[in-house]
Structure formats: C-alpha cells, structure tokens
Amino acid sequence: MTNYLIRVETAHDRNGITELLLSAFPTSQEARLVRKLRRDGDLVLSLVAVDGSDVAGHAGFSRLLSPNASLALAPVAVTAGRRCQGIAFALVVDGLERARADGWQAVIVLGDPDYYQRFGFSHEVVSDKTCKYAGPALMGMTLTRGSIAESHIEYAPAFSSIESSG
User: Fold this and answer.
1) How many Cβ atoms from other residues are within 10 Å of residue 108's Cβ?
2) What is the Cα 77 distance to its own chain's centre?
3) pTM for the structure as a whole
4) Contact partners, residue 113, CB within 8 Å, separation at least 6
C-alpha cells in the first residue's frame, strides 16, 4: 500500500513521531532531539507522512544559529514496513519546497551523500565553512540566489545537549 498524506505535524502526531524515531534509530537520541527542538521553539517545520491516523514517516527542519535564515534537516525516518516506497523522498522534497516558499535561504544536512545529493545537497556548498560536523557528510543547499555568506555553521542548542547526554 502506497497511500499516505504529507502534512505539518499536529499535537496528535507527537506520540507517533516519538514511537517512529525510537523504532527507526538505534538509540533514543533522535526522539529526544525532536522533543527538545520542539520545546525550545527551534523545530521550524515538522512534517509527517500519515497513513490514516498512523505516522509512517517524519522529517524535521530546525533553525540554525548560523548561517542566518537557514535550516538543518534532521532527523528523517520512515517506519520499517513503509521504507523504499518514496516516503522519505517525498517528505524531504515537500520540506524543501515549504522552506523555499517561507523565505529560508539554505538547508544543511548531515547524512549519506549518495542519498542527499539527489535533492541538490552538495558538500561544496559548505566545504569552506567551519562546523563541529565538518566532513564529506555535511552538505548544504541554497534556496535563494547566491551562496551562504557566513563562515560557520552552528546547529540549535538541542543538538549539543543530546550529544552530551549519550
């Protein structure tokens, strides 16, 4: 079955998002990250793919401290039984379209280059930037004309607090 609807999360989706993240990742870090980003007001866009009332996928876009007017894409997850059906792809595309329409200048992702390059993410966009996550898996995409002016990429505080709590 490939029917699903992508929309912005509602309060009723939050338990389903947590359950999805707990099942999709080896630790509870991503679930705690999303809760903290939401609580801190840094989760700018939280999309769900729903099949009826069930959350089948989730993509979070959070505010970066630097560069200005930029977002971080993380995490992206799909339930095990719904993987390889295009849900993650659709969530990312929808999120990028919404970010562009809302006037965000860039999106940064830390992930598999082979996967994220298909959306237009590129390491070259951020290769001259300093970041605690610097390396080939750190990629960026500009949503407006021009490049990222700032020389440093800094994620929302929730990312550091989750890392340090193991």
Assistant:
1) 24
2) 9
3) 0.93
4) 121, 123, 136, 137, 139
C-alpha distances out from residue 109 to 45, 84, 135, 164, Å:
14, 20, 11, 20
List, in order, residues 6 or more apart from 160 with CB less than 8 Å away. Answer: none
Count of residues for the chain? 166
* Residue 77: its H or E element: strand 70-78
Cα 69 to its chain centre, rounded Å, is 15
Alpha helices of the chain — where are they, by DSSP H? 14-24, 29-40, 87-101, 113-116, 157-165
Q: Which H or E element spans position 134?
A: none
Token pair 């002016």: residue: 149
Q: What are phi and psi of 165, to 5 degrees?
A: -90, -5
Residue 4: CB partners within 8 Å, gap ≥ 6?
A: 49, 50, 51, 56, 57, 82, 87, 90
- How do the pLDDT tens digits run along the chain, 166 residues long? 468 999 999 999 999 999 999 999 999 999 999 999 999 999 999 999 998 889 999 999 999 999 999 999 999 999 998 888 899 999 999 999 999 999 999 999 999 999 999 999 999 999 999 999 999 999 999 999 877 889 999 999 999 877 644 4
